[in-house]
Amino acid sequence: MMNKPTSSGQPRARLSVQWCAMLAMALDGLGCAMTKASQTFLIEQAICRAYYTEHDPSFVTPDGRVPEALCKTEELQSRVTLFAAGLDFSMLITCFLASPIYTRLASLVGARQILILNTTSFALRMAWYAAAFYLHNIIDVRWVLLSAFFDLLGGGIPMREILLYLYIAGSVPEEGMTGTFNLLSAILIGMMSLGTFIGARLLNVNVFITCALIVAVYVFLVPLVSLFPHHHGEQSQSQRTLRTYNTDDASGDEIRSLMIVDETVDEMVIAIQSDPPFMADHDGDQATKARTPTLFRALLRAATVDLYLSIELVVQTFRHPFTRRVMMLFFGTTLAAVISMTTPQWASGTFQTSLSQVDQITALEQIISACTLLALPLLSRYVLRPRLHAKHAVDLAIIVGSLLTGILSALVIAMAPSLSIYAIGVAIGATGMGLSDALRSFATSGLSSEEAVQRLYMSIRTVQTLAAIAGTPLWSGLLLWIISNPSVPRGLLYLGNCGVLITCLLSIKFLQRPS
To answer: Which residues cross the membrane (predicted)?
Structure first.
């Protein structure tokens, strides 16, 4: 057996794990932000290059670039929309299918092994992603769609974020949880804003420098996560974390909505804890004999039973009137939020501006969102709570306020005559953060049993994933139709988004807590 750490060494080891996991999450946020900032530009350039190489090669520079203004035609933008939607949709589907498999594997072989596999496969994914765009003279750009295959090898972004969260949760004392999450939130927002800004600036220099930085970030993550211990923390500590996360007050939930892992934590925590991991000191022959059939059965179960049970759990949750309305609100708000996947292309084409300028507005949006979320606990505690008294009334006020700001933002963006007005609309929308966590907190306080709370939390992620899968073709298809019909106002995209948010707002009156 492994030697147990001494009482003095254990806190030091936990602190080391905590900071390593936070560093990994910060680098992951940086890489994701740079990827998002450059993806639309890479797709647009690839399609424009192929088009003008065939029709008018004089517009293609020796390094393969095409002036961005020439890419804003209806035909080319339609192709960009279809390609981007296909890439996003393939990633969502593969991550949805792979999550049960790697959740089950993490419970058997340990979180570190799955993290190493995940980061390695994702580094390969981004290398393939960059190579498919860079080697345009050799590889057809459509080969980039195969990057989703690497998500099947490691579980993709959701699996990595949850396992990193579990390492942090397992290494932080319960009394220091809030402070740690606040610090993590600040770090994540800072790194994501930095990544968006770097990606935006490098679009005007050389986008493949951004690609090289992204690959370097994820390559560095591989040896970093290999330093993690075999376990992500004591089970009792993780269970306390889950209870704290589920039942904490609204201010804590709002702060944690800054985290990328916010919407996936609870399902994974419960699932990964359902089976004890293998210990590192198994006897060789016995472990080999016992492990193979166990892993095979686990993979088979994850690919069949677990995926079915996740859907069945949602169906059971929908049978309860209160949780059904909560789940419908989560579906509607997530469906509205998915429009962000098409926003860069829509804004760039509508206002005839560069994607670099649109990404800089996105970076500003992230900063405003951070400030809003950091101010929400103070607003809840010192302004709303003394006037509304009840915690669920405070949660409801934040839900309504967030939806109203989202509606106003969508209307301003839909009618914006210029990029500056569009930026104002984006800033208004950024002040409406906190809706997801306020809704979660409201639902938690309205349920009497811990089992009902856990069932709801596990269902939320599935519903949000299904909403993202449905929203990607919805908004991309609407944008494609708008581009194909010049007589249709381009603001119709955000008017549709506004309609979804108004429907969510009207449904609030039916959201009554069970007596």
So the answer is: 82-102, 114-135, 141-168, 180-200, 206-228, 326-347, 367-384, 396-415, 421-442, 463-485, 491-511
Q: Is residue 6 part of a domain?
A: no
Tokens of 116: 């190493």
CA distance 120 to 374: 34
For residue 250, what are the contacts with CB-CB under 8 A and spacing of at least 6? 376, 380, 391, 394, 395, 398, 437, 438, 441
The answer to whether the predicted template modeling score (pTM) of the entire model surpasses 0.85 is: no
Burial class (CB in 10 A: 0-12, 13-18, 19+), 136: middle
Within-domain flag for 5: no
The mean pLDDT value for 285-299 works out to 51
Question: Residue 486 pLDDT > 70, yes or no?
Answer: yes
Q: What angle do CA 358, 360, 365 make, to 5 degrees?
A: 95
E-state strands within 241-296: none
HSE-CB for 376 with a 13 A CA cutoff: 33
Residues 107-131, mean pLDDT to the nearest whole number: 88
Tokens 């860069």 locate to 344
251: left (phi over 0), alpha (psi -120 to 50) or beta: alpha
CB-based contacts of 31, cutoff 8 Å, min separation 6: 126, 195, 214, 217, 218
Segment 356-388, tens digit of pLDDT: 899 999 988 888 888 887 888 888 888 888 888
Task: Report pLDDT digits (tens) over 331-356.
Answer: 999 999 999 989 999 999 899 888 88
In 3D, which of 160, 148, 155, 159 has the Cα closest to residue 98? Answer: 155
- Answer whether residue 110 is part of any domain: yes
- CATH number of the domain that residue 434 is part of: 1.20.1250.20
Number of domains in the chain: 1
Residue among 184, 271, 208 nearest 455 (CA): 271
Backbone φ and ψ of 459, nearest 5°: -80, -30
